[in-house]
Design goal:
Layout lengths: L6 H4 L1 H25 L56 E6 L19 H18 L3 E4 L9 H11 L3 E8 L10 E4 L7 H18 L9 E3 L9 H5 L3 E9 L3 H6 L3 H20 L4 E4 L12 E7 L21 E4 L2 E3 L2 E3 L4 E5 L7 E8 L13 E5 L2
Parallel strand pairs: 1-2, 1-3, 3-6, 4-5
Antiparallel strand pairs: 4-6, 7-8, 8-12, 9-10, 9-13, 11-12, 13-14
């Protein structure tokens, strides 16, 4: 009789399981041997964690670098000559206001497509313009000379406290359309508010137009700041002297943004502004001096007396003894209302009678006129107090 078959022979799956277990065990033994083998190659060490690239929209120092004396080394050279008329800038107080400043951490604030900051280009142009003006004998102050934020009111206050003749706020513009690139210069309120500001704006525009020669123009390059805000721009509203705000070009235009990074282009802009101010000063800067002391109280019926200066007669050139004030341009306003006046064309003396019935208290007296170059008087209105 044959012996019975074993369990292994009766269950083939048991044989397969055993084989599988042996194979797995062999792999584990092999892996353990490799791990303990000192000759096996080591895995490379983990590197430092990846650092994201800098964000250009919060970067600082976005202009191409330039030495500190970049402008000074070029002033009065063959490329940037000082014209003889620049001598008429001697003694003029010019307050330059480089727009914006600080706030670089505000992502994308006042930046071009690649992150170039308007605040930096404004400051560089102001510094370069200062170099030209000081060489001509003008006194210059900047409302900021570093990358700091200065309030609009304080910027104007700096000029007011100093007694600036001109306040020039330097900016570059932005638009939602990247193709826009043109020059505009802004004055405060309406054309009658301070005519000398129109003189300044007109000269600044012509200087920028000549220097930058942008392909685009606007049909009205001089614009009222009330087109933007009901009360106008804060810096112009608070300034008590002849003032204007330049938007030289558009940093949102990709090509212009890259040009504005370059020190040579910034210098070209500054030189254009300088020549504009030279031409303005060459045509005379008219002023008014009060012979009747504004600090002393006056009464209704009193006569106020002033001396007019056309900005030209003092040069004592041939012909300067003639009248160079346009008589029809003379106007005197008390609290905005035109009042009669008398003008002595030979002595350049002006007299005004305070109207009867004027109320007691403080009143403004605004004396305006133009010289032969159609330049308006720079002097702001006087304030007189009528006694009870």
């Amino acid at each position: 009789m044959r012996p019975p078959r074993t369990g292994i022979n009766r269950a083939p799956w048991l044989r397969e399981t055993a084989v599988t277990r042996i194979a797995v065990l062999s792999l584990l033994v092999f892996a353990s041997a490799c791990a303990s083998d000192p000759t096996a190659p080591e895995s490379p060490p983990a590197g430092p964690p990846s650092v994201p690239p800098p964000d250009p929209m919060v970067a600082v120092d976005t202009l191409h670098p330039a030495p500190d004396d970049f402008a000074l080394a070029r002033v009065a050279t063959a490329d940037y000559p000082i014209p003889p008329e620049a001598r008429f800038l001697d003694g003029v107080n010019v307050c330059l206001d480089p727009g914006h400043g600080g706030q670089a951490s505000r992502r994308g604030y006042k930046r071009g497509p690649t992150g170039v900051r308007e605040a930096e280009m404004n400051l560089r142009v102001a510094r370069y313009l200062r170099a030209f003006l000081e060489r001509a004998g003008a006194a210059v102050r900047l409302t900021r000379d570093a990358d700091v934020d200065v309030s609009l009111k304080e910027r104007a206050a700096i000029a007011n406290r100093w007694g600036a003749d001109w306040f020039i706020s330097l900016h570059h513009n932005a638009a939602s359309k990247p193709t826009v690139n043109r020059t505009t210069v802004w004055y405060h309120r309406d054309v009658d508010h301070r005519p000398s500001s129109l003189d300044l704006a007109r000269h600044l525009y012509r200087g920028l137009r000549d220097a930058l020669a942008l392909e685009q123009i606007t049909g009205l390059p001089l614009k009222s700041d009330q087109l933007m805000f009901k009360n106008g721009f804060g810096v112009l509203r608070h300034a008590r002297m002849t003032s204007a705000l330049c938007e030289s070009s558009f940093f949102t235009h990709p090509d212009e943004e890259q040009r504005l990074r370059r020190p040579d282009y910034n210098l070209r802009e500054a030189y254009g502004l300088f020549l504009a101010l030279v031409r303005y000063a060459a045509g005379g800067l008219p002023r008014v001096a009060a012979l009747t002391d504004p600090a002393a109280p006056i009464r209704a019926g009193a006569t106020l007396r002033f001396t007019l200066d056309d900005g030209l007669r003092g040069r004592k050139a041939w012909g300067s003894g003639r009248t160079m004030i346009l008589a029809d341009s003379i106007a005197v306003r008390i609290d905005g209302a035109v009042v009669p006046h008398r003008f002595d064309a030979k002595r350049y003396r002006l007299s005004v009678v305070v109207p009867e019935g004027i109320a007691a208290g403080e009143h403004t007296v605004d004396v305006r006129f133009e010289n032969m170059f159609k330049h308006s008087a720079l002097t702001p209105p006087f304030r007189y107090r009528v006694a009870e």
